[in-house]
Amino acid sequence: MNKVILMGRLTRDPETRYTQTNNTLVSSFSLAVNRRFVRQGEERQADFINIVAWSKLGEFCSKYFKKGQQVGIIGRIQTRTWDDDQGQKHYVTEVVAEEAYFADSKRDGEASSTSFENTFGNTAPGSMGADFEMSSSDDLPF
Question: pTM score, two decimals?
Answer without folding.
Answer: 0.71
